[in-house]
Amino acid sequence: MKKIITIFVFSFFVIQTFSQTKTGNELVAEGIAKTKIKPDLANFKITVTKQNTIEKTAIKELNQEIEKLQNVLSKLGFTEKNVKISEYKISKDDYENRKEFSATNTLSVDFVLDNKRIEGFYQEIQNENLQDVDIEFETQISESLEKTTRQKLVQNAILDAKNNAENIATALNVKLNNVKQVSKYNLRDITYSSIKMDEVKFLKPRVASEMMNPKTSFDKFEVMEVELEETINIVYEIANK
After folding, report:
1. I need a surface site. Which of 31, 94, 226, 227 has the fewest CB within 10 A?
2. Are 222 and 167 in contact (CB under 8 A)?
C-alpha cells in the first residue's frame, strides 16, 4: 500500500439540513458537523513461535529469539511500560508417532503513533533477521483525542443548527425567541472509537537478496482516517414578527 500518514485536520462539511415547525409556536432545527481524524495510538502484537522435537530445545530457541526482539525494542526506545507479555504457552503435537513441541511467546507493544518509529522497528526486524515472527499492527483513537474532537464537533453542529433556524425563520417570516430544548445524537459515526481501527500483518522478514532494495512498513499499509460526526437538534420558541 502507499506510504501515507495524513496530518490531523478538521474539515467540517456543510450538510443539507431540515427544519420544521412542530406546533404553531415551535421550530426544530438540525445541525450536523463531521470531521476526519487520524488515530493517535498504535500497537504491535508480536508473536514468536519455535518448534522442535525436543521441548527444551524449542524453549531455548524461543528465549533466544525473544531476547533479540527485546534488544530491538530497547534500541528503539521502547521500555517496560510499552511492552507486555500477552501470551506464553508450550504445546505438544503427536503426528504419526512423532512428537513435536511448540513454544510461543506473544508481546504487546503500545505506543504513540509515529511513522518514523514504525519504519525503524520494521527495518530493525529485517536487519536482525528474526525468524518465525508474526507481527500485527493496529491503531486506536485515544479517549482524550476523541473527547476534544467531539467537543469541537458539538460546537460547530450547534452553530449549524442556529444558522438553519435563522434561515427557516426568515423564510417563514417569524422570529426566534427562547431555546426550549437541545438534543444530541451521533448514530451515524463511522467508527468504533478507542477500539481497533486498523490491523495489518507484516510480511515475514525477507531473504538477503530482497534486502537490496528495502521498503518501509508504509509500503504495505496506510493508516486510515476515522470519521466522527455529531448531530444537534434545537427546538426554538417562535413568534410572528
Report:
1. 94
2. no
Q: How many other C-beta atoms lie within 10 A of the C-beta of residue 94?
A: 8
Q: Is 164 exposed, middle or buried (0-12, 13-18, 19+ CB in 10 A)?
A: buried
Question: Do residues 41 and 232 make contact, with C-beta atoms less than 8 angstroms apart?
Answer: no
pLDDT tens for each residue of 225-240: 899 999 999 999 999 9
Q: In the 8-state DSSP scheme, what is residue 194?
A: T
Query: What's the one-letter identity of residue 87?
Result: E
The amino acid at 233: N
Spell out, as residue ranges, where the chain has pLDDT lower than 70.
1-24, 186-222
Strands of the sheet with 133-140, listed across from one edge: 83-95, 98-112, 41-52, 133-140, 198-201
* pLDDT tens digit sequence for 170-227: 999 999 999 999 998 765 444 433 333 344 444 443 333 333 344 444 445 567 889 9
Amino acid at 40: D
* Alpha-carbon radius of gyration of the chain: 27
Single out the residue of 44, 226, 6, 41 nearest to residue 142, CA to CA: 41
Q: Which of 39, 31, 32, 50 is nearest to 5 (CA)?
A: 39
Q: Which residues, listed in sequence order, are joined to residue 140 by a DSSP beta bridge?
A: 41
